[in-house]
Amino acid sequence: LMRRLLQPKNRMVSTHPSKQSCYVSILNIIQGEADPTEVHKSLLRLRERRLAQFIPWGPASIQVALSKSSPYVRTPHRVSGLMLANHTAIAGLFRRTVDQYDRLRKRNAFLEQYKRERIFSDGLEEFDSSREVVMELIGEYEDMQKPGY
Asked: What is the 3-state secondary structure (H, E, C) of the chain?
């Protein structure tokens, strides 16, 4: 189960990781009849095989939370899992979003509705400010991949 959670096809966000991309943190929530010793062995195998590339400047650990199955929800599986991860490849998604925003802003597309709102009565600086915040976030994620962060 832990290996499956790391597979790209099981992610909810489509990113294109590079060779430098790495995990900042991982939390796996395992629900059902999970044996804690098996979970520990699985974590050791993941670490030995280096299936998850972590940031070079921080601890390479996967946090695990075990929970019981819900008595109200019937599932065909004995065990299910959810992985919450912070990965530097998300910067690519943010970059694509900024590129799409730039193309729309260049053409002033879809801005009329916003200009009617009171918050944008003085101009659309709020959009430009938000773009700068996202660019800083992209830079932060790119810096996280470096050993000297």
From this structure: CHHHHHCHHHCCCCCCCCCCCCEEEEEEEEEECCCHHHHHHHHHHHHHHCCCCECCCCCCCEEEEEECCCCCCCCCCCEEEEEEEEECCHHHHHHHHHHHHHHHHHCCCCCHHHHCCHHHCCCCHHHHHHHHHHHHHHHHHHHHCCCCC
Taking the domains of the chain in order of start, what are their residue ranges? 2-87, 91-144
Question: Residues 62-107: pLDDT tens digits?
Answer: 999 999 988 888 888 889 999 999 999 999 999 999 999 999 999 9
The reply to whether CATH 1.10.287.600 applies to domain 91-144 is: yes
Mean pLDDT of the chain: 92
Task: Report the pLDDT value the prediction gives residue 19, as an integer from 0 to 100.
Answer: 86
